[in-house]
Amino acid sequence: MTTMLPPHLSEQDLTHALDAFRAALGPEAVLADEDELREFRDPFAFAAWDDYTASAVLMPQTVEQIQAIVRIANEHRVPLWTHGAGMNNGYGGPAPRLTGSVVVSLRRMNRVLEIDEECAYAVVEPGVRWFDLYDAIRAGGHKLMVSVPDLGWGSVVGNTLENGVTYLPTGADMASSCGLEVVLPNGEVLRTGMGAMPGNKAWHVYKRSLGPSPDHLFMQSNLGIVTKMGVWLMPEPECYMPLWLRVWNEDDLHALVETLRGLMLDRTIENVPQIWNTISFASVMSSRALWYEGDEPIPDPVIDRMARELEVGRWMMRFALYGDESVVDHRFAKVKEAFGRIPGAEVWGEKCSPDAIAGLENPHERVQGGVPNLDINQMTGWYGGEEGGHIGFSPVARLTGDDAVALRDLIRGLVEREAGLDYAAVLIPTNARSFIHITLVIFDTKDEAEARRAYDACKLLVREAAKDGYGEYRAHLDFMDLAAEQYSFGDHAYRRFVETIKDAVDPNGILSPGKQGIWPKALR
Amino acid sequence: MTTMLPPHLSEQDLTHALDAFRAALGPEAVLADEDELREFRDPFAFAAWDDYTASAVLMPQTVEQIQAIVRIANEHRVPLWTHGAGMNNGYGGPAPRLTGSVVVSLRRMNRVLEIDEECAYAVVEPGVRWFDLYDAIRAGGHKLMVSVPDLGWGSVVGNTLENGVTYLPTGADMASSCGLEVVLPNGEVLRTGMGAMPGNKAWHVYKRSLGPSPDHLFMQSNLGIVTKMGVWLMPEPECYMPLWLRVWNEDDLHALVETLRGLMLDRTIENVPQIWNTISFASVMSSRALWYEGDEPIPDPVIDRMARELEVGRWMMRFALYGDESVVDHRFAKVKEAFGRIPGAEVWGEKCSPDAIAGLENPHERVQGGVPNLDINQMTGWYGGEEGGHIGFSPVARLTGDDAVALRDLIRGLVEREAGLDYAAVLIPTNARSFIHITLVIFDTKDEAEARRAYDACKLLVREAAKDGYGEYRAHLDFMDLAAEQYSFGDHAYRRFVETIKDAVDPNGILSPGKQGIWPKALR
Fold first, then answer.
1. CB A480 within 8 Å of CB B188
2. Nearest to A476 by CA among A461, A497, A498
3. What angle in degrees, to the nearest 10, is found between the helix axes of A252-265 and A325-339?
4. Global pTM?
5. CB within 8 A of A282, min separation 6: which ones?
6. Average pLDDT rounded to a whole number, residues B421-442
7. N or C: chain A end with fewer CB closer than 10 Å?
C-alpha cells in the first residue's frame, strides 16, 4: 500500500501522528488500511484517480476526543478534513480536498440530544442522519416534522453546514438551524448565540446574541468542527397537500417562474419547490438507452416523446401546501388558477393527513412531507454504466423568467455542445427571490474518458457562467478553487478577509485546507 | 472648550488627525465645536456626565471618503465610532463607547440606490432613514411594503446592524437584510454573498455564497463599516388586518404566551407582535402624576384602575394579519377562538386595504402596516420631567408561558424593590420560539439621582437575569461590558474568538473600540 502523505510530512511524521491519535482515541477509532479507506473516497471519481485521497480516518465519539484530535494535529502539523456522514455525493463525498489529509468522520457522534416539543426544535450531534432524526421524532411520539433533503442518508449537521437545501417551510431560505457548538482549531469549545451564556435556555430558539453572530462563518467553512446544532422543526399541520405542475413547452419555463415568484412572495407557496426538466425525471425513471441510441445529446423531438410517454412534460414542478384545510383549499384554487394561465399547464395533487405521509407512494411527496428516503438516487444509472455517478454545477440566480431562461440556454448550450452530454436540470427556489440551478452532469464512473469530459464540462460552466454573473452555491472538490476564484470583487477582498480570519484562528492551517478555496498561509 | 481626547493621543496628535480628515473630506465634513458635538451625545444621559463624548464628528458622503477615513485613522491611531442616523436611543444614541472617539456619522450617505419591484427588495446607503425608504417606495409607485420599527427616524442599515426589531412578516426572525457592502478596517471594500462576484445580480436575493458567510459578523460589530445593504420588501397583500388582544389579569400573561406560540408556530400569525403591560401603555398615553402621587412603584390596585380607565388591560397585544381576504378571515376567526379560551380576553380589529394604512389613526396599526411614524416616542415623559428618557434592559427568553412569567417576576421584583421604579414592559416575539423582554426603565434626565438609580437598576438586572440564564440581545453603552461579560461559556470562548478576529482584521483597533464588549488588544 502507498500511503498518500500530506505536504511537508514524511511517512515517519505521519506514523507518529497516527500513534498519537491511537493513544488518544483508542486503536479502533483510527483507520489506515487501504481497504478501510476506500469508502472515504469520492464515490463517483474514476477508480484509478488518486486525487483527494485520505491518509487515515479518525472516528471520534465525543467532543473531548475532537479536542484531542485538533491538539495532536497542531502538534504534528497534520491537515484534517471533517465530515458528518460524508454523503456529500456530487460534490466529492467524504473525500478531502488535500490529498493525505486525515479525515475526521463524525459518524459515531450520532445522538439526538434533545427534542423540544414545546418550542419545536431538536439538538443533534453531527453524525445524526435525517433518517435518525426522523426516527427519533416518531419514537418520541412528537407531532413534529423535520425539513429533509432529497436523500435521507446524509448528516443533518453536515448538510446544513454545506448550505444544503431542504423542502419544508422551515427549510425555506436555509433558515432552520439555530445555535452551534464548535470545536475551534485551538481546541476551545465555542457556543454561538445565546449558548455563549452558561445555562441560557434560548440557545436554540434565538439566532443571535450580544455582539457579532459567527454562526454562518462555520457554513462551507474550515474554521471549526461543529459538534452540536439546533434544528427547527414544524408542528404537523391539519392538512398536507403535495402538488404537481406540468407544462409541455420548453419555453413555458419563463411563465412558470414568473408565476411562481408571485405565489412565493405572497406566501401562498411556503415550501421550497423543485422544477425538473424532462431529462432529469427520465434519469430517475428509466435509462437512456430506452430512448436514444446516439452518442450526441438527445434531440428535442425525442425529449418531447419522453415528456409525453413518461407524463412529466418538458418541465414539472413539485411543491406542497401545509396548514388548516380551508387555507390549503383556498391556496390550491389560487395556485391552479394562476398556473392555469399558462396554456396546457396542469396542476394536481391530493390532500393528505400528516399520519398518512409515510405511506405515500411517490418519494417526492414523502420528502416534502418530511419523510426521508433514497428513492431518487437511481438517477446516476442514466448512461447505462454499472456504476453511474454525477457531479453538480449549481449556480444561483434571481427567481425571474428571464434569468431562468438565460441560465438554461447558457448551460444547455455548453453541456450539449462542449461536453456532448444531456442537459439534466433541477431548479430550486430556496426563497421567493432566488433559485439554485442544479445541473446534474451524469456519467458512467467506469468510463474514464466520459468522466473526464464531465469534469471538464463543469469547469467550463463555472467560467462561462461567471462571465454572465452567475456563481455557484457549492462546488465539487475538483473545481472548488476555480469556483471560488470567480468571487473576485475588489481584487478578491472576500477571500482575503476569510483568509485573514483563517490565519488568525487556525495559524497552523490544520482544519480542512482548501475547503471552498480557502487555504492556510503555508499552502497558498 | 475641553476636548475629550482618546487614550494614548495628545491634543496635538488629534489636531494633526483632524487636519488630515479635513484635507480628505473638506472642512464642512469635520465637526469639532462643542455646540456641534452636543447632538452626538447620548440624548438621555444626565447633562453633566461626560462619559461617552466624541472628540469630533466626520460626515462622509461616499465610500471613497470612508476608505480615506479609515486610512487616516490607522495612520494616526484614532478610534472611530460609526452610526447610521444615530437614533439608537435607549442604548446610548449616537455617542461612542470610548470617550474621545471620532464619530463617523453616515447621515449624509442617504441615497436609496435601488428599488426592485420584481424581486421585492431595496438597496440603501446607511444614512437612509425608514421615513426615506418609505417615501421612495411611495414616490416610485411600487406596490411594496417595508417592515419598519416603532420609530421611523432611525437608519434602515443602523437599526438592522443592531439586530433591531421590525414588525411585518418580512421582519420576522430579523431576516430582512440580504447582501452587504462593507469598508474593512484596512480600507478594502468587501461585498458579501453573491456580491463578491463582479456583476452578480443575485447579491440581494440570496443570503449566502460559496464559502463562509460573514454577514452576521457585521451585526452589533466593530469589524467593518457597512456602506450598502439590501432589504427585502413585502408585496402589498389583498388585505391587512391590525388586531388587538386584551387580557385583564396580570397572570393571564402565561396563557397569552402559550396560545400565541401555537399560532406563530403554525404561521397563523406571521408578523412580529408586541405585548405591552399597563404601565407601558400608560406612559405613552398619559403621565404618571395623573394616576399616582407616591414615590414608590405604583401598586397593583392603581394599575388595575389604569388598565380599566385607559382600556388597555393588564396586558395588551398588538399583532396583524396579511394576505388574501379569505385567509385573513379564517385566521381572524381562529385567533379569536384560541385567545377566547382565556377568561375575559378580547380580540378585535378591522380589515384595511393597503391604500388606507397611511390614514389609520392608531400609530401601532400604521407601524405594522409599514408606515413609519414617531408617535410612541412620548413615553419618555412618564415621570413628569421636562426631558424624559429611558434606557432598555432587553433579555431574550424562550416563548413559553413559564419563561414569560419567570422573567416578569424577576424583572418587576428588581425594578420595583431595588430601583423603586415602575415596571414598564414590552415583550416582542421576534420569531415563534423566542421573545425579547424590553424593559423600559424610564426616568427624568434632569434628575441626576433618578438617572443614576435607573442605570444602577439596569446593571443589577443584567447580573441577576444572567444567573437565571437570560441574556441581553442589545446593551446600553454604560453596561455593554457587563452584559458581554455574562456570555462567558468556555471561559469566554466567544469573546476570545471575536477578539481574535478583531485583532486580525483591525490590528490598530481603530473601529468602534468597546462595541458590545469587544476591545482591541491595546485597550483590553
1. no
2. A461
3. 150
4. 0.97
5. A288, A291, A306, A310, A312, A382
6. 95
7. N
Taking CB atoms and an 8 Å limit, are B208 and A174 in contact across chains? yes
- The CA-based diameter of chain B, rounded to the nearest angstrom, is 70
**Cell numbers at B167, concatenated:** 414588525
- Chain A partners within 8 Å of B63 (Cβ): none
User: Sheet of A102-105: strands edge to edge?
Assistant: A30-31, A56-58, A102-105, A80-83
User: Going by DSSP bridges, is the β-strand pair A56-58/A80-83 parallel, antiparallel, or unpaired?
Assistant: unpaired
**Residue spans of alpha helices (H) in A104-178:** 130-139, 156-161
Within 8 A of B268 by CB-CB distance, chain A residues are: 324
Strand partners, B395: B472
- Predicted confidence at residue A386, as pLDDT, reads 65
- Report the amino acid identity of residue A391: I
**Long-range CB pairs of B38-42, under 8 A, 24+ apart, other chains included:** B39/B94, B40/B86, B40/B93, B40/B94, B40/B95, B40/B103, B40/B105, B41/B93, B41/B94, B41/B95, B42/B92, B42/B93, B42/B95, B42/B477
Which residue from A403, A134, A459 is spatially nearest to A261, judged by alpha carbons? A403
pLDDT tens digit sequence for B80-137 = 999 999 988 889 999 999 999 999 999 999 999 999 999 999 999 999 999 999 999 9
Q: Which of B62, B58, B61 is nearest to B80 (CA)?
A: B58
Three-state SS for B191? strand
Catalytic residue (choose from B261, B331, B366, B474): B474
To probe the interface with A, which of B176, B200, B218, B427 has the most A CB atoms within 10 Å? B200
* C-alpha to C-alpha distance for A293 and A147, rounded to whole angstroms: 40
Environment class of A16 (CB within 10 Å of its CB; exposed 0-12, middle 13-18, buried 19+): middle
Give 10-residue mean pLDDT values along chain A (524 residues): 82 97 98 93 84 96 98 98 92 95 98 98 98 98 98 97 98 97 98 98 97 98 98 98 98 98 98 97 90 95 97 98 98 98 98 97 97 83 75 95 98 91 96 96 87 91 97 96 98 98 98 98 95
Mutation target vs A (from B194, B215, B219, B322; most A CBs, 10 A cutoff)? B194
The percent of residues in chain B predicted with pLDDT above 90, rounded, is 88
Task: Please name which of A400, A398, A518 lies closest in space to residue A469, comparing C-alpha atoms.
Answer: A398
Beta bridge partners of B155: B129
> What is the Cα–Cα distance from A162 to A158, expressed in whole angstroms?
6
Burial of residue B463 (CB within 10 Å: 0-12, 13-18, 19+) is middle
Nearest to A234 by CA among A187, A150, A183, A170: A170
Beta bridge partners of B438: B426
In single-letter form, the type of residue at position B337 comes to: E
Whole-angstrom Cα distance, residue B473 to residue B438? 10
Average pLDDT rounded to a whole number, residues B415-442:
94
User: What is the ipTM metric for this complex?
Assistant: 0.97
Residue A337 CB burial class (10 angstroms; 0-12, 13-18, ≥19): exposed
Closest CA to B381 of B247, B483, B297, B283: B283
- From the list A190, A497, A518, the residue facing B497 with the nearest CB is A190
H or E segment and range at residue B83: strand B80-83
Contact A271, A430 (CB under 8 A): no
Cβ-Cβ contacts under 8 Å, B235 against chain A:
262, 265-266
Q: According to the model, what pLDDT value does residue B385 have? A: 63
Q: Which helix (H) or strand (E) holds B430?
A: strand B425-431
Q: Work out whether the CA dihedral B306, B310, B313, B315 comes out positive or negative.
A: negative
- Reported as half-sphere exposure (CB side, CA atoms, 13 A), residue B496 has a value of 14
Q: For residue B496, give the nearest of A191, A289, A274 by alpha carbon.
A: A191
